[in-house]
Amino acid sequence: MSAASPRDPWLVVIDPQRIFADPSSDWAAPGFETAFAHIAEAAAALGPERTLVTRWLPTADRSTSWGDYFAAWPFADVGAEDPLYTLIDEAHGLSARPTIDEPTFGKWGTQLAGIVGRGAELLVAGVSTDCCVITTVLAAADAGAHVTVLTDACAASSPENGAAALHTMGLFPPQVRLARTAEVLGQIREEAS
């Protein structure tokens, strides 16, 4: 891509962490490997200056409902420095910026909004479609962002849950659009030429 304009899209890669990628994890997202191939393709097209990577960290206040959550998932109730929460090797270098770390499912917040700005064009990919992706997408749309979910660059807890999440996000046009990676990258190339 040439020099970025305020309307150029940002790729937001949600939580490409070992806890979601490792098949032995209780939170492994089937299809992660295939989804990540599309993520890598989109990140290469947009470049590290327009790609942001998030991480979910287990740092929420246990005196809130998060305490019940971690009681239900004790394997995940470890320190944020635990290897479970590191990025997969292939995710290092996708972004020129540090990771956006949040203790919440949704990653739309002051950190992400502060980087992309008001009314940003976002391409969202990552895991899990039915948890951190959907909560990020709907909050960003509520805040006025234009969101395209790269459907083949997302992995869910199960195919059924992924389909349900995509269906739900698809109920919010024109703020939320669902599209495959090749289609979106083709449109970006056309607009750049």
Automatic annotation (TrEMBL):
Residues 10-170 form the Isochorismatase-like domain. Keywords: Hydrolase. Pfam families: Isochorismatase. GO terms for molecular function: hydrolase activity. PANTHER family: FAMILY HYDROLASE, PUTATIVE (AFU_ORTHOLOGUE AFUA_2G08700)-RELATED (PTHR43540:SF9), PEROXYUREIDOACRYLATE/UREIDOACRYLATE AMIDOHYDROLASE-RELATED (PTHR43540). This is Cysteine hydrolase family protein.
